[in-house]
Amino acid sequence: MELASDDVEGDSARVRKWLSGMPDTESVSRFVPGAGIERLSLRFDIAMLREALNQALRIVEFKGALDKGFGAFSLTRRPGAEVETANDLSGLFYTRVDDSYREVVREEPVDEYAFTEFAPSFKGTYFEFVHQALVRRFPIGRMRVLSKAPYNCNSWHRDPEPRLHIPIVSNPGSLFIVNHHVTHLPADGSVYFTDTRGYHAALNGGESHRVHIVAALPH
Length: 219
Fold this sequence. Notes:
alpha+beta; globular; six-stranded antiparallel sheet; Jelly Rolls; 4 helices
């Protein structure tokens, strides 16, 4: 039986070289910027973000199978819109689902520009202050609080617009992937630009929930 290709000496040399060193096991606990993911200078108070989350969870529950994966609630809405649809919490995205690598469309488009009203339920919380600070600087569409359960990953997909991420609760096993760049987003009040027009996924390989504010940047 023949191998498709074989370079005994070359492969042996490469493995010996790789074994001669140790991988970096420290920088993985920090944010490392890369193509499609950067940290802004804007920063919020992490203690107040967590208090606002606790206040919000006394008012509303995460929608979705939280303990099985994904949970969400909205901080913005269309003016006067009392009823939130399932599509409001997700929206149009593109993905590739099999080994044909053909891109397919999932769900319906969302008009991000329409989500101009901060949710009345959360008026007076630090979340309102965060929203005001963001809209002074950027065009902001849907602004949601998203949770990912331990040992869980969302789909590999791309969105029509970039997003801002503000981690509220995280752990070292919580990672964000944009195209070929993988990094950890610490929950320290930082705001991260993520170019989710590229293929991306969030995964939580840690032992606690991951909770982020995620704000769409329509353009």
